[in-house]
Amino acid sequence: MDWFNFLSELLVNGPWSYVLVVTVLILCGIGLPFPEEATFIVAGYAVSKISGNIWLMIGVALVGILMGDSLTFFLGRRYGQELLNRWPFNKLITAANLERSKQFFSKHGAKTIFIAGCMAGVRAPTFFLSATMGFSYTRFLIWDGARALVTCPVSILLGYWFGEKAEEHLAPYKNYLLVGMGLVLAALLLRWFFKRQKAAG
After folding, report:
1. Taken in order 27, 30, 33, 34, is the CA torsion positive or negative?
2. List of residues 6+ apart from 177 with CB closer than 8 A
3. Could you tell me what percentage of the chain is helix, strand and coil, using 3-state DSSP and rounding each to the nearest 5?
4. Tens digit of pLDDT for each residue in 35-77?
5. What local confidence, expressed as pLDDT, does residue 34 receive?
6. For 152, phi and psi rounded to 5 degrees?
7. Domain range annotation of the chain
């Protein structure tokens, strides 16, 4: 709970709670190791302590998420291809593998973005790669926004209602959600692989 204590101290005592939440979530979006879900919970907790507006906090948190994720996406759009042309990536990724990756994102990019967005550690690399593979920003924004609409309000409201105990209420459901999304992603990857094998054979 170190992150909870550190951030809640800033949000509860500072006059810029909403701005700070947006800033932290932008940093989460570009891959810095700040826990997004815990930030939502602290944001909800802080609103209850400062008698703030819970719906305004949910709104600014959604803006922060989409801004950070979009920044990662545009970094991938601007620098991703150049990065792939440099060592060691140009030795590891062949033209054929690159083309297959582009086809994968063309077919399954939306589902991949939705699922990866719920997983810390793979979120930013997936968003960066999706842009590198030519995925549409409009589609990215739609699916990342849909994911954010699921995770953000629920976590903030739990923080608002339960404070530090919110993570305990969320943890059992989070584990089931992650396992389910992992199975869906694995099934999609296997389906794509076998289709490729069949087409090649």
Report:
1. positive
2. 118
3. 85, 0, 15
4. 788 888 889 888 888 888 999 999 999 999 999 999 999 998 9
5. 77
6. -70, -60
7. 2-200
CA dist., res. 53 & res. 71, Å (int): 27
Which residue from 123, 144, 109, 112 is spatially nearest to 28, judged by alpha carbons?
123
Q: Which amino acid, 91?
A: K
Tell the burial category of 94 from Cβ atoms under 10 Å away from its Cβ (0-12, 13-18, 19+).
Answer: exposed
User: What does the pLDDT look like over 80-129, one tens digit per residue?
Assistant: 888 777 766 655 566 666 777 778 788 878 888 888 887 777 888 889 88
Of 15, 57, 66, 16, residue with least CA distance to 39? 57
Q: Please tell me the distance from the alpha carbon of residue 142 to that of residue 159, in angstroms, as a whole number.
A: 26
Mean pLDDT estimate for the chain: 79
Give SS3 for 115: helix
